[in-house]
Amino acid sequence: MQLEMGFNTPDEVGILSGRPWHPHFEVDGELLDLTRRKVPLDFSPSDHLIRILAGRGFTNTSDIENFFYPSLDQLHDPFLLLEMDRAVERMMKAIAAGEKVAVHGDFDVDGITGCALLCETLEAARVGGSRVQLEPGFIPDRANDGYGVAERMVKEWASRGVTLLVTVDTGAAAGREIDIAGSLGMDVIVLDHHIFEDRPNAVALVNPRREGATYPNDELCGVAVAFKFAQALQQNDPTCLPENFLETVLDLVALGLVADQMAIVGENRILVKKGLERFNDRSRIRVGLAALLAVAGLDRGFPVTTSDFAYQLAPRINACGRIGRVMSALELLLTKSESTARELAGVPDHEPRKQPERRR
Ligand SMILES: [Mn+2]
Predict the structure, then answer these.
(1) Model-level pTM?
(2) To which H or E segment does residue 332 belong?
(3) Which of 31, 35, 54 is nearest to 44 (CA)?
């Protein structure tokens, strides 16, 4: 049988595979019509595109419109995450009282972007003119600290008067370290997405994959849970963060979601699409990521894609954790200085940066 290329007959074959294509959802003319008339698309979607979307559950015009025009107001209510209310309540108290707060991340892209996002959130947050005293963000060293929450830092923070610790992309299985924190007078908020056996003794444990979770998106990674926490803080008190704050951290969320290989559908697709837009806007990209694009040869004017995240940027950030310089990855994401960013990223024509003294 001669296989026709293209999708012009009812018996289509895949362009690449050459195999017959069996659409499991037939779209009637009415939906095609409705979509064309009611969705204000910038381009005219083909019958095939509408049929593919319908096969994935987009069968009414508002779903299709949301797909083509994603916006942050389509995100789920962050308070649908179990214990988010407790996490927000405890943090609002810490901000109002000016408590000492520490953030503990993890040594992969998700854990580093999550740590950076929380540091920026807590730096920016105000309640009645009051703010937390924030310790520098901490990423464990793979070789010295091993996996999970670093006990040495819990003890050090306690000795420095820290009363609230937030862990991101880690902590769900850190029952022992969280008990130590508690015995030293420190509350712990866990923002994680790893499966755990016994609930640690944290003030709040926010995790979309925990038992009994009903949150509509269980594909949130660590930095995305941290983003939901920032969203919840702002929803709870719209004045506690600058109005456009959430938009400014979407690049971090997008990078973490792609690096952790989360499904880029629904809420995650909105976050990644908006994050990519930020990445591809020269006036808004953060200086550290711009420097990283430069060393990867991706600064030549092409739009950056999720493939670039996965194969160019994420491995460069992960590499820091493998050569004992994980804190420089966090510094790269947080710096506001272009020259520091270029040094840290190793953009040519600069002396290599001296190994920073290991933080105690
Ligand atoms: Mn993760």
Answers:
(1) 0.89
(2) helix 326-334
(3) 35
CA 108 / ligand 1 centre spacing (Å): 7
Structure tokens at 114: 């999550």
**CATH match of 78-345 with 3.90.1640.30:** yes
Separation of CA 225 and ligand 1 centre (Å): 10
Q: Which residues are close to ligand 1, an ion, with C-beta < 5 A?
A: 110, 169, 221-222, 260
Distance 149 CA to ligand 1 centre (A): 14
| C-alpha span between 103 and 101 (Å, rounded) | 7
Judging by DSSP bridges, how do beta strands 164-168 and 100-104 pair with one another? parallel
- Domain ranges, ordered by start, for the chain: 30-69, 78-345
- Dihedral sign, CA of 238, 239, 240, 244? positive
CB atoms under 10 Å from CB of 136, counted, come to 12
Place of tokens 């923070």: 157
E strand residue ranges, 73-151: 100-104, 133-134
Collapse the DSSP code of 188 into the 3-class scheme (helix H, G, I; strand E, B; otherwise coil) and give the result. Answer: strand
Tally of residues, the chain: 360
Structure tokens, 74: 């389509």
Helix extents (H) in 184-286: 222-236, 245-248, 250-259, 266-279
Tell me the one-letter amino acid at 63: D
What Rg, from alpha-carbon coordinates, does the chain have? 23
Quote the pLDDT of residue 359.
53
DSSP string, 12-74: -B-TTT-SB---S-PPPHHHHHHHHHHS--SS---HHHHHHHHHTT--SHHHHHHHHS--GGG
pLDDT at 13 over 80: no
**Mean pLDDT computed over 331-356:** 80
